[in-house]
């Protein structure tokens, strides 16, 4: 079976968040299970060419390469991933991909940036199977009609349900794909509601017959505390305690934060409203007031948010706080290995990977019960959960976590053990996608 993934991100060469991890991880699992897989990406300037093999130009504007053995096609020439005139950029990219695409059994699209391909392909090849994975329905690719002026689009009405004067690119993907996959079962339910459908709940409900939820996996070769090249101290999943202690000491020395008897708490996140920023702030203050250390690794596309957090870091400056406002892969790995607790109080979370990676590294997640967080973290079993997006609900969960950490090591270790042992690999999701592909061919 020839599967072609088209996306705006792919780890590690073009990653902004979880979407990049998912495209790479799923493609790799499918390739390993015998499928023939190709990933098509915009050719971004930021792509580190040293990570690619067999690079050659196959036609003007189209480069063929291998990424860890997977066929990769880079199309066009783009100076950034998101921001700026992103809808026009991705519309142009979709048009270039359409001209390049030839043989495939399944065309697998990921999120709004590549959704225009669904109507573009269906208008000439109605029988060719298309799957759309919805990683985040909040981002929909709103644009004015003139963005499509140079595009030969005959099919359909892409008018945004909330604003008749603009188009909605995600809507086109939802209507013209043969199957829609939300990245967790809970999120597949949530996007049918007004609250999470973000204006597209009507379209999701109309297309409900082809909607399902498949929980993302993670690349367990990459996220492995026994072999992780970013770690100074490796440790097996069945003996987290000593490995975590050594990594914590190393991290505290590197970041120059002072050792304390309380837990090391971290947040590794894009600093965007979706992630429950006020609640992360609460968790930071709580941790400092309760004898813990707090490390924030987060970057924001929004200058106002970034400035707010920089000021916050100054206000609460202490030997027990470290804030790092950049995307830093190495620090992320060091934090997963060194931390005791990770806080993820998202307002919504389609799947979320940080809680899964954290559990694999023996870090206990404290999460708000939404989307994929609700599908993976269970209160007092492998982590701590709370429902209401309020400081009171968060603090209740933090009270429980801090109390167990300080006073009940056997229970704490049991939480770590039940979080670190399950198989989080792509195996299950790849199997589920395979049967889905079969059902629409
Ligand atoms: P989202 O896709 O909404 O950003 P996910 O939880 O699905 O959230 O995925 C986040 C991914 O990005 C994880 O691999 C996480 O480790 C990584 N990440 C997030 N912020 C940073 C950062 N500042 N530096 C390094 N990695 C980060």
Summarize the structure in words.
The protein has 16 helices and 17 strands. The chain has helices at residues 18-32, 86-100, 117-122, 169-176, 185-190, 194-197, 201-206, 240-255, 277-289, 303-315, 329-338, 354-360, 371-376, 391-407, 409-420, 427-440; strands at residues 2-6, 36-44, 53-59, 62-67, 70-78, 106-110, 130-134, 142-143, 167-168, 179-182, 211-213, 264-270, 293-299, 321-324, 341-344, 364-368, 384-386. 49% of the residues are buried. Helix 8 packs across helix 11 (329-338) and helix 9 packs parallel to helix 14. The chain is α/β, with parallel strands linked by helices. The protein is globular, with a radius of gyration of 22 Å. A nine-stranded mixed sheet has the order 3-4-5-2-1-6-7-10-11, with helices on both faces. Strands 14-13-12-15-16-17 form a six-stranded parallel sheet, with helices on both faces. Strands 8-9 form a two-stranded antiparallel sheet. A hairpin with a 2-residue loop joins strand 4 (62-67) and strand 5 (70-78). The site of adenosine-5'-diphosphate has 19 residues, from helix 1, strand 12, strand 13, helix 11 and helix 12.
